Amino acid sequence: MAADPLERLRQMLLDMHHSGRLSDIEPGLYEDARAHVEKLKADYYSLQNPLESRAGSLLIEEIGSVTETVQEIFSIRTRQILDLAFQQIEGQYFDKDEARKMLPAERVMYGQVIDAIEACREALIHGGEIPLTGRGAAAIERADEVEDITAIDGPGEPAAAPPRPVSSPYALVHIRSDMESFMGLDGRVYVLRQGDIVTLPENNADVLCEHDIALNIRLNK
Questions:
Q1: What does DSSP say about strands 214-216 and 170-175: parallel, antiparallel, or unpaired?
Q2: What pLDDT score was predicted for residue 133?
Q3: H or E element in which residue 181 lies
Q4: H-run or E-run covering 190
């Protein structure tokens, strides 16, 4: 990427909004964005006191901006590719030049979407069989299980979701005052406000507690 990767990503996103069509993008856009984020993370961790420095806050802001911009680029292109798939399925005008602008991974997704729609149409209209496989089917099955449990418990009394395991070493803390966003040792960006109760990597939690920004909540087992 150029000297200012974030600015180039934003300009590319702006062009996408204006054109409304699938456009050419740099083949290494996603790889370059990941590499840039990793560099920013390394710069953040190299600071002596990243939680307390303005430089640390700026790095966190740029990491968040790059990540959000890349995600929006992906979302827009995915919607455009889905539109192209529906056009082909319905026999509408199909712009082959636009299809050539897909990245290799996008072409794979495009083909899988068309195959899935054709299989579903064959099953519903002509009575064929369609196997439910993959992450999408698994998500549907999990949703069905939740509905079944809710039905057993009775209306108005939804079953409690199973607790999510928290990787150790983490600490549960109560945030006592507003603070700048920061990156934890687990690589996650935390945006915390006074009154929040959250699990943080122990080292990050210790720093906040030492500065009276957080209070460690020690739960008895």
A1: antiparallel
A2: 55
A3: none
A4: strand 189-190
